[in-house]
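User: Thanks for the earlier help. One more: Phosphate transport system permease protein PstA. Can you show the sequence and predicted structure together?

Assistant: Of course, both are below.
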Amino acid sequence: MNAVAVPMKPASQHLYRRRRLGNAVAVILATAAAILGLLFLGWILWTLVAKGLGHINVALFTQNQPPPLEAGGLKNAFFGSLVMCAMGLLIGTPLGIAAGTWLAEYGNARKLGTTVRFVNDILLSAPSIVLGLFVYAIFVAKPGPDSDPLLGFSALSGGIALAFIVLPVVVRTTDEMLRLVPTQMREAALSLGVPQWKVTMQVLYRSALPGIVTGVLLALARISGETAPLLFTAFGNEFWSTDVTEPMAAVSVVMYNFAGKGYENWEHIAWAGALVLTLFVLTISLAARALLLRNKITHD
């Protein structure tokens, strides 16, 4: 039988045209906003490459930061950034994975679990300078038993500040990835008499590992460019230092100190450091995306 077309009523036609017009306006505005954002992003990247690429050389990675009007590099700052980022990951990652596991496996249906997720979301969106001030108040400014600061300005204080930024990212990622593991896998393992901790370690973590690693990489990308927390904790150091209990340089802090000071060599080093830092963050982000895509293809 041939379908008979039912004519639309005038009111329905008017509503249909109004919805199509609203959809077209929304699509145009969204596209314009995306293009505008991409233009500004491209402008920023082009400026960064134009001002920084010509000053990336061997000295940037082999010499310490120089005094005004002298040649130098960012060797001590690169080392300091790597050390403090590594400490932030070493402190924040195990705690984040443990907390995320508790949320997904034990606190998922509890009021306490809901409260912890809410607090974690607040911590995730908290300004980094607030976290830096908190660590400053507890570990840098607060005196210990001998009336000296607990840690003082040091790389260790900077690592703790960065750990507070890593923690909520890893908690959220671990929680989400473990909850995506099918319930049937848990039930199948438990039905064989496998203890709960072995199910978590040998079944759940294996399935969620790519997603958890992705979260850790995203946390690394975020903390690698942080400046405000390190100003209140690591403080900075113009010289080469491997002592984590003393102030230590970081690339972001050196960029903050060098930019706008009026010394040409400092500004060149700051632009070069900014470009290297941006390329590092871009590489980490691409690696996280690749892991996430691989995990998605595997599950599909």
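User: Great, one quick takeaway?

Assistant: The two ends are 40 Å apart (CA to CA).
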